Amino acid sequence: MQRRRRLLAWAVGVISALALLPATARADNPIVQHIYTADPAPMVHNGRMYVYSGRDEDGSTTFTMREWRVFSSADMVNWTDHGVPMNLGTFAWADANAWAGHVIARNSKFYWYVPVRRRGGGMAIGVGVSDSPTGPFRDALGRPLVENGEIDPHAFIDDNGDAYLYWGNPNLWYVRLNADMISFSGSATNIPLTTAGFGTRTGHATRTTLYEEAPWVYKRNGLYYMIFAAQCCSEFIAYSTAPGPTGPWTYRGTVMPTQGSSFTNHPGIVDYKGGSYFVYHNGALPGGSGYTRSVAIEKFTYNSDGTIPRMTMTAGPGPADTLNPYVRQEAETIAWGSGIETEPSAEGGMNIGSLHNGDYTKVRNVAFGTGASSFTARVASATSGGTIEVRLGSATGTVVGRCTVPATGGWQTWRSVTCPVSGASGNQDVFLRYTGGSGFLFNVDWWQFATGGAPGDVTSRLRGVGSNRCVDVENASTAPGTTVLLWDCGTAANQQWTSTASGEFRVFGDRCLDAYNSGTANGTRVVIWSCNGQDNQKWTSGPDGSIRNVRAGLCLDADGAATANGTRLILWTCNGQDNQKWNRA
């Protein structure tokens, strides 16, 4: 667990800023609040928005950057932190400056072009590659792809499959990438920085055009756009257009004027779920500056003639979709967070941690429908734990549920806790407020709400007649394939089974009691698995308390008729003995 105090011990400053916003505004820009992020590169893949960024170290007084981060969203307001998929150590030949990069998908792989300082040399551009948009990324070449001392690469694939890499400060360059995306044909070509193509700079001794750095090229309705950072310092965002991917370029004007607390800016534009989005950075967080920046997003509409409207920094866009609370949501999926940090979880992905009394996370536009009946969270605590308060509307809003978090024996020793919920219906902003004593309280890995169930659904424990112990999921794990066993009866979510009208026994909302590998033989192991509606996950209840698997025709059985904690459950020929009888409790 991380032990540094977060940059977001800043409630007074935030409240003051919020007081200046219109009553209808939602202050969700910047999109990440627990670390400083810079130089965003948005990408849409498989219906999800990804934003790749650099990381400004806390308290930086120069461009101190050692790693890259990735965040993603399905609704443009709730963002999931995927951690550090690539850092300077990825490139053995580099020693500093994890600066502004860009990610593009091709060949079922993802390529991350980044500028770094070569050991004993100047700035060069390397390529990371991964099979997943969230990494991990590895060095694709073991050496630079291009090296001329300039920065800010951006890759573009045209409609005909031709690929290009653009980069440069103070000049502007491109190469034609080969289909493998890690080599190129010919040599680097310099794009002339004419005043007609990139605007006229005034009051500068050596530069006549506005272009400074950070080119971003895309195509819309047959026209090629290049947006870029202009006229350092302080920078604004400008753009040019061209009939082809290499020009000739014509200057079109300002996208975002100089504003905010950062003297640099860095643009990206993508379309997502019917809207157009401009992604940039500013210095809006407390302690923010040109060296401690934060990624933000604006939604916009092109003018009827295809020109980009002039934009200013706002509190951020509205939701592009709702969030489903009835499927597992990562705790690090956040619209706004106060006092939290993220770190890798022993159960995979990330978790939130370093929580103190009064810290909270917010998720927006949660679609409860007719209402939730319970809330489950995966938690860990090396101290005495605390409480998760489920609130609606604000961090001081109506409390609809309280979950007690016990000591679990370690910061990565996980268990699930469940509490009843009342009054959560419709579309709501949900605040999870973390309370307790002094010091660090607990970590949270994921959470999920549950409904009252369909007609005929009943949630209860399954208590063995022969053992007086309950059907339990080993170590309260949610992983498919986890063994189901006997354990002392308690109130935790791993012993709460919902018997559905369709014949399933569900736990954790979306895990079903399952005959492993659809087995039909005596001794087949019983596990949990993602619910799929197949007969190996369907059961019938007999009048004697037996539970029979539909596919196998065998009964749920305590192996060897044992009664001890940890006895695994299997399928066996139905025999009417007490080790095959179960009470609902």
UniProtKB/TrEMBL annotation:
Site (Important for catalytic activity, responsible for pKa modulation of the active site Glu and correct orientation of both the proton donor and substrate): D152
InterPro entries linked to this entry: CBM6 (IPR005084), Cellulose-bd_IV (IPR006584), Galactose-bd-like_sf (IPR008979), Glyco_hydro_43 (IPR006710), Glyco_hydro_beta-prop_sf (IPR023296), Glycosyl_Hydrlase_43_Enz (IPR052176), Ricin_B-like_lectins (IPR035992), Ricin_B_lectin (IPR000772)
Keyword Isomerase: no
Transmembrane segments: none
Catalytic residues in the record: D39 (proton acceptor), E213 (proton donor)
Any matching Pfam family: CBM_6
Listed GO MF terms: carbohydrate binding; hydrolase activity, hydrolyzing O-glycosyl compounds
GO biological process per UniProt: xylan catabolic process
Keywords: Carbohydrate metabolism, Glycosidase, Hydrolase, Polysaccharide degradation, Signal, Xylan degradation
Domain called CBM6: residue spans: 327-450
Gene3D superfamilies: 2.80.10.50, Galactose-binding domain-like (2.60.120.260), Glycosyl hydrolase domain, family 43 (2.115.10.20)
Extent of the signal sequence: 1-27
Family: Belongs to the glycosyl hydrolase 43 family.
Official protein name in the record: Beta-xylosidase
Source species: Saccharothrix saharensis
Upper taxonomic lineage: Bacteria, Bacillati, Actinomycetota, Actinomycetes, Pseudonocardiales
